[in-house]
Specification:
The chain is mainly beta. It is built from 4 helices and 21 strands. The chain has a single domain, classed as Distorted Sandwich (Beta-galactosidase, Chain A, domain 5). The strands form 4 sheets. A 9-stranded antiparallel beta sheet has the order 1-9-10-11-12-21-16-15-14.
Length: 266
């Protein structure tokens, strides 16, 4: 079976890329889904859409991530955010390839660096892991800044700045709790200043004549360095645990998928 793969001719063409989607599901009815450049085009897209216990249904907990890579002091966006009149940041311009095997994976070429980002959506729990790997290049002067964009709303609704959102976070080493959502990371720097992303645009909702703008809240910023290795991790989950062994969970999910493929009759 040929694995779907999109090169820079598609990834760096905004109109074409917005029409290509990916989707991962788990055993509970939850999912992660977006376009191949990470732009959410409708309210149902998100990195962690969890199926909560009846009668609650599906909730979009983590909409996406704002991602900026710094090489020395030069900033290069990895993420792309859509507004009615513009795309900002425009990380899709640094994207060279998107593929689906073994996980949804984005490959960025920045100066002499090749960096891969993978979304690992676990099958047996309501958890998503995002892994960043430097494939080639000197990691000594590289840092990555992440801002999670949180909604914590029902799948078919929208969040706005004037609503009463619980923005209080509880911080422990390598773990952050916001209401019933848990974030795990291996970043050395945590900035707890919150920020709103106002009037994020959903063109597919606009075409369906639905409300098409949403305000996303970011409760903190993480700053990663690669000096202790060429990969770093971010995780969002509804599972409350003292810590996460990122590599073990990724390996477990990769093994499960490989076994499924091997079990398919030739």
């Amino acid at each position: 079976m040929k694995t779907p793969c999109f090169d820079n001719q598609v990834c760096q063409n905004l109109n074409r890329a917005l029409k290509q989607e990916w989707r991962e599901t788990n055993a509970f009815g939850g999912y992660a889904a977006s376009t191949i450049i990470g732009v959410n085009t409708h309210r149902g897209h998100g990195l962690l859409v969890a199926q909560l216990k009846p009668p609650l249904g599906r909730f979009v907990l983590l909409s996406g991530l704002e991602e900026i890579l710094y090489v020395d002091d030069a900033a290069y966006p990895l993420s792309t955010q859509l507004y009615q009149s513009t795309a900002h940041p425009d990380g899709y311009k640094n994207l060279r390839e998107f593929s689906l095997q073994p996980f949804p994976t984005w490959t960025f070429w920045i100066e002499d660096l090749i960096l891969a980002k993978s979304v690992v959506f676990l099958h047996d729990e309501q958890t998503v892991i995002v892994r960043y790997q430097i494939l080639t290049g000197d990691e000594s002067f590289v840092r990555l800044e992440l801002r999670p964009q949180v909604t914590c709303r029902e799948q078919d609704s929208l969040t706005f700045h004037n609503e009463r959102l619980n923005t209080k976070v509880e911080v422990r080493p390598n773990r952050i709790q916001l209401a019933g959502l848990y974030f795990y990371h291996d970043a050395p720097i945590l900035d707890q200043s919150g920020r709103w992303f106002r009037q994020v645009y959903y063109p597919a909702d606009h075409e369906r004549q639905l409300d098409f703008e949403e305000d996303l809240y970011s409760p903190f910023r993480l700053v990663y360095t690669f000096v202790k290795g060429k990969e770093v991790f971010f995780c969002a989950s509804i599972e409350n645990r003292p810590a996460v062994d990122f590599r073990a969970l990724v390996h477990k999910e990769e093994t499960r998928r490989r076994n499924l493929i091997e079990a398919i009759p030739a």
